[in-house]
Amino acid sequence: MADTGNISSQRLKSFVDRIERLEGERSALSADIREVYSEAKGTGFDSKVLRQILRLRKLDSADLKEQDELLDLYRRALGL
Predict the structure, then answer these.
(1) What does DSSP assign to residue 35?
(2) Distance between alpha carbon 22 and the CA centroid of its chain, in Å?
(3) Do 36 and 74 reside in the same domain of the chain?
(4) What distance in Å separates the CA atoms of residue 31 and residue 36, rounded to the nearest whole number?
(5) Is the same domain home to 36 and 59?
(6) Is there a single domain that holds both residue 51 and residue 73?
(7) CA contacts within 13 A on the Cβ side of 44
(8) Dihedrals φ, ψ of 27, to 5°?
(9) 21: helix, strand or coil
(10) Tens digits of per-residue pLDDT, 48-79?
(11) Is 37 exposed, middle or buried (0-12, 13-18, 19+ CB in 10 A)?
């Protein structure tokens, strides 16, 4: 492939190919994740709660503690 102006066609094609491959992998992973959620739901687990657990596990301990304290405070303020 030729260079067009300052654009290397070969380099551009390499980026496009990599992005396409990764998009395909992401699609396959998304399907796998949906399948795991479906399997968990089939055994009685709530997928919404599983998603919340995964989100919480991404937080560091200080952020998790702060979020728990605020949630507790708001619940008490609302009488829940």
Answers:
(1) H
(2) 15
(3) no
(4) 9
(5) no
(6) yes
(7) 0
(8) -60, -45
(9) helix
(10) 999 999 999 999 999 999 999 999 999 999 99
(11) middle
